[in-house]
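Narrative summary of target 7.
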Amino acid sequence: MQQTLSIIKPDAIEKNVIGKILARFEENGLKIIAAKMLHLTEEKAKKFYMVHKEKPFYMDLVKFMTSGPVLVLALQGKEAVKKCREIMGATNFKDAKEGTIRKDFASSIERNAVHGSDSLENAKIEVSFFFNNNEIFPR
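Modeled conformation, tokenized:
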């Protein structure tokens, strides 16, 4: 069983689709093993998205991710990283398949409803960025 991280972004929180997104993960075999709602500080958002620091969209991403609360999730399941990314859909919602979270709830490439780890290595780093071991409940 793998673990992965997903973040329900401020735009999806604002649209009040948290439950619909959680249901997509659960209905597709992923278990929520940790969750917390928080409002990212600029410092925490910059650190989390450091991999994008040199990209032109970095500061816009930080500003967006600090614009409202997010729901951070640790998910568990068989091939959780791959499964989560399939459920989310392509980063650009226009390229996302029908029935994916981004196709259904995103409004732009930036306001694309969810973040998900892109590799098992990054999933481990990202889960530990937000959760201590005593906050994760594998099952």
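The chain has a mean pLDDT of 96.
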